[in-house]
Amino acid sequence: FFLINGLEIVSKSAGESESNLRKTFEEAEKNSPAIIFIDKLDAIAPKREKTHGEVEHPIVSQLLTLIDGFKQRSHVIVMATTRQRNLIDPAV
Prior knowledge:
Helix content: 25-40%
CATH architecture: 3-Layer(aba) Sandwich
Shape: globular
Strand content: 15-25%
CATH class: Alpha Beta
Keywords: ATP-binding, Nucleotide-binding
GO molecular function: ATP binding; ATP hydrolysis activity
Number of strands: 3
Distance between the termini: 21 Å
Number of domains: 1
Number of helices: 4
Organism: Rotaria sordida
Protein name: ATPase AAA-type core domain-containing protein
Radius of gyration: 12 Å
Order of helices and strands: EHHEHHE
CATH superfamily: P-loop containing nucleotide triphosphate hydrolases
InterPro entries: AAA_ATPase_domain, ATPase_AAA_core, P-loop_NTPase
Structural class: alpha/beta
């Protein structure tokens, strides 16, 4: 079981948030079967057209890439929660 807290994973340092996401997904794959649980998904996957910072876009793109790659990672399940579903990027 791997927990990602959306508020804690976001970093102002360029590339660090994306790296943290990749590491978690890689660890889950190595230890499969596994569950990745993302708390506060809206913090790492906001609607890209509504964001003004340069930090959010790469994080959303990285998350989408990792989730899309799960076709090959069939023994890893991704679950997420949010209280603000309307703020999440529709691609997620």
